[in-house]
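User: Second chain of the day. Same drill as before.
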Amino acid sequence: MNIVRDMSLQEHGRMKIRWVQDFMPALGAIKKEFEKTKPFAGKTIAMSIHMEAKTAYLATVLKAAGAEVYATGCNPLSTQDDVAAGLASLGVHVAAWHGATQEEYLQHLSQTLSCHPDLFIDDGGDLLELLTSTCKDYADKVMGGCEETTTGIHRLKARAKAGALPFPMMNVNDAKCKHYYDNKYGTGQSVWDAIMHTTNLLVAGRTVVVAGYGYCGRGIAMRAKGMGATVIVTEIDPIKALEATMDGYMVMTMDEAAPLGDIFVTATGCRDVITKRHFEKMKNNAFLSNAGHFNVEVNEVELREMATKVYLRRDEIMGYELSDGRTLNLLAEGRLVNLASGNGHPAEIMDMSFAIQSMSLKYLMEHRAEMQNDVYEVPAEIDDLVSKIKLDAMGLKVDTLTDAQVKYLNGWEV
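Assistant: Same format as last time:
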């Protein structure tokens, strides 16, 4: 049974799915192979990823590979109702709608897991959390799964260290074809797509504060600089702070940056990055947004407690009027701004990420007997395969080492 908002939106959703297919050639090539070999025949796969067109295409690829697929979202605001309907009409079991309450969101996750999956794909760790708590009864057949976010991987490694990981998990996030491109170029573009669309304001000439200089932060800072903003980076890691300095950005603490910033974007994966003491120093009409997975980086509870008035200023922008007359603007409830207020990463980027997902899931299934309950890196051969498929699709070629060059690189003689 599908749990979607409005099945009458299905044709518009299918149109979106058809559109991204044309720009995801690597995943398309894998789909053609999967249609022949049916690697997931007889298997049930549960997915909790942002319910938009690229994710929907991945679900159809897994279905074409012989799997029974159950899909839901991983963020109440990132689900697109037309895509959910479109995917449901293509034979995937869908439980998701936009703007779900916390209770509804958990119901959708539980409904998805009620299929007793053999394999699962997670984005942020919600499925794993339920499979180890309230939905333990649904984990009887689970072989393992894939996780594609930095936040989710942090939690997986903590579980593994504590001996609390019940099955093997593939670290898709750290695959080269994922974090080099998805986290940097995907986040860099999609965050600003969402902020510019939501505010309809200029970036050039403004001061942008980026919290965190991992791959996501690097991409966000790079694109802000390219559009003419002055960029400040805040960090806790001295190595990354030095890198940001040498990349041409100002580096300071959030306390120092708070009165200077016009637009704030958090990308740390941690909580309480921007709090009351920072709100107290900010400019009137500063914009607050988050590009981390969970809505804990900007402390909305403290902001609400400070406000004398909270009101909707524009779609996905909530104004918090303070006692001194200043107003601070929070985008997308402090949730993942590029998906809650936008369309997420470009299709060409997710092509590589989802190609890695599909091949990693196949690898886990085939090697489960020799795997422990631990976090596994994506094998280099999968990264290499996806990169070669992508290059071929783009009409690009690379050089090949000669035998003499291979001998030279593997020896010590000059």
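The chain has 17 helices and 15 strands.

User: Great, on to the next one.
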